[in-house]
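hey
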């Protein structure tokens, strides 16, 4: 990843090494629970979080919430305190704090918590089914969804496009 033409520094807090190298790319490998403390040492304009897990990896609803809500909001709060005016995060299509679906409810609650932090600009990316290479085995439902998604995309036209 290259730094923007304006010469901005990129401070990346990651759980695993990315292998990227650039004079303006500063990578710090640490558990997500350490990120709020690490952010406090930086002067930030913007913060980006692509942090998330799966129910399978998390092992429980509490484990999932600890990553997708607690870690994301703690990082965002620390970034805001460090001066970040702009936040970008990844959520999910269908995120809704009132959802009966646990996954979508947590994502919606996370979005609400970020709004409450008062960023001047908050961009929430809500991807649908993630079809790219993520490594590891996919659940049966994911594999079926990926196989059917090109057909579903053909049907989602006009008013259904959203």
């Amino acid at each position: 990843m290259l730094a923007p033409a304006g010469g901005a520094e990129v401070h990346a807090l990651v759980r695993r090494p990315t292998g990227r190298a650039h004079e303006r790319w500063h990578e710090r490998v640490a558990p997500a629970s350490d990120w709020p403390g690490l952010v406090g040492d930086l002067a930030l304009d913007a913060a980006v979080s692509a942090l998330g897990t799966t129910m399978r990896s998390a092992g429980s609803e509490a484990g999932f919430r600890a990553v997708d809500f607690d870690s994301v909001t703690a990082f965002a709060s620390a970034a805001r305190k460090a001066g970040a005016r702009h936040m970008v995060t990844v959520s999910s299509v269908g995120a809704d704090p009132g959802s009966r679906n646990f996954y979508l409810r947590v994502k919606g609650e996370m979005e609400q918590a970020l709004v409450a932090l008062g960023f001047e600009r908050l961009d929430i990316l809500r991807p649908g089914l993630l079809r790219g290479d993520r490594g590891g085995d996919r659940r049966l439902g994911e594999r079926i969804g990926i196989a059917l998604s090109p057909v579903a995309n053909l049907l989602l036209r006009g008013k259904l496009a959203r």
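The longest strand covers residues 10-14. Residues 87 and 122 are 5 Å apart (CA to CA).
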